[in-house]
Amino acid sequence: MKLLYNLRWLFILSFFAQMLSCSKEHDMPENDDLSVAFSSTTGEYKVKTGKTVTLSASVTDAIHPVYSWKLDGKIISTDTTCLFNGDKTGEYFLTFQVDAENGSVEKQVKVSVLEKLPPEIDMTAAIIAWAGQDTKLTANVKYADSASYAWRLNGNIVSSDSNYILNQTALGTNTLTLKVTTEDGEDLKVFTVTVLPLPVPQLFFDDGHYRVTSNEDHHRKMTVPLGKSLVLAPVISNIANPITFEWTVDGAVQTATDEYLNFTPAAKGSYTITVTEKSTSARATVQVECVAPEGTYFRPKVAGDKASAANGFDFVPAPGQFINYQIGSTKAKALQDLQTALDNTSAPYIGAYGGYFIVGFDHSVNNVEGKADLRIDGNAFAGWNEPGIVWVMQDENGNGLPDDTWYELKGSETGKSGTKERYAITYYRPTAPNSDVLWTDNFGNTGTVDYNGYHSQQYYFPMFITESSYTLTGTRLASTFVVENGVDGSLGYPWGYVDNVGDGSKVSFWIEDAIKADGTPANLKYIDFVKVHTAMIGQGAAVGEISTEAGVPIDLNF
Fold first, then answer.
1. What is the pTM of this model?
2. Contact yes or no for 535/485 (Cβ under 8 A)
3. Top-confidence residue, 327 or 6
4. Is 475 helix (H, G, I), strand (E, B) or coil?
């Protein structure tokens, strides 16, 4: 596994070295906020002989900028766009330069002028469609002037237009092909169309563990110490505009009508709490146990205890290129791998968004005011970050298991519009090896974790999950994935996340940053368990999916 990691990072580092060598920086002062992006994310353009191509740049945060496009040192445009005439075949390198009051940036693009320019289909090979619903597919094709189109579903021609409306009622997989033909040639793309049942409105409570069909109807459990309050909020799935919620505690209707319930029990005991979204009647139930006051089950350090997390409790990776749980693998094997990693003061690969591990200390980790309490290393560097969210839990009921209440450690993106709390993603078990893994989310979006061909695993899906799908829940950060001069990058965020360079505090975390579901402080005096999950969705052609690489959590106050 470590060899695979090393190869991956050597690959990334070599790419960034290429990027730096291809990018020419102007001698004037630079400004980190001044940036340039091209309409071609790779920085390369193609045009047929005798035709023209528009080169377009977008510039952000430039104060009173002056633009120039240069070819062989001569200025040929003073705008953000440049119309390039492909009069003669060959390769041409143009420089786009921005000179502004707050700095200067200079970048290069490549234009290839070709005698023939066949069409190129640029579409993902995996498609999700909902049974009985129209799915509009639009051919995304480069160099498609005067093109003809032929869509075939399971071998039969179904459309000769650039668009195709797919509507299938039978569940399962179908083969769809698109052939695009021009005077210069043709391109053919084969798609796998998976038809799924139409999503239904749902509410459920997240207990920090993966969710499958066999456990989705079970009541979730949470705890709260006597004298403290608990904020409850359900995951909202496939409800476009949730309006009003009704909360009940042991059947008694509460005054709260939004998605949050602030619950302060008056006595120890078990409480059944139900929430209903009124417009859809979607409902979820959680069992809340009011336990002994905070501190009752605090575990002081004793001789022989370790500074690092000692016990592995759960490990469920999301799909990814380093997942090596093929057919026949078991959940017990995954848990053993987690424990073995901890014993060697490391942590396993957790895959794409939502993949996670849950570990515990052999003692309680104190919250020391004004001081970092936890250390969790990553391997981020400038230009490549794969942020992960950290969650913490007290052993509030004293049973030694992480079955109480999780609290997120806030970061720089907490509460911002691009951040989605209680985000749920469902991954679908592939039916054939070497396949992309399909996903849907609780907002109706779909996508894939692509099989990139650089690794020999037949399945990127953890095949110890035998159900047709599984759901992972957490907080999702907006992607910072970029492509510069054809090189993949992930910019990351200022602070608060694992495997994220940020402001230099890349490995330190404060228990005092723990928040409740509504973002208010949790005010925890100590913690016993830690969960880390990948927080972004993104992938590159060479480096594959964004996946948090996290080390074993360490008690800095040990």
1. 0.82
2. no
3. 327
4. strand
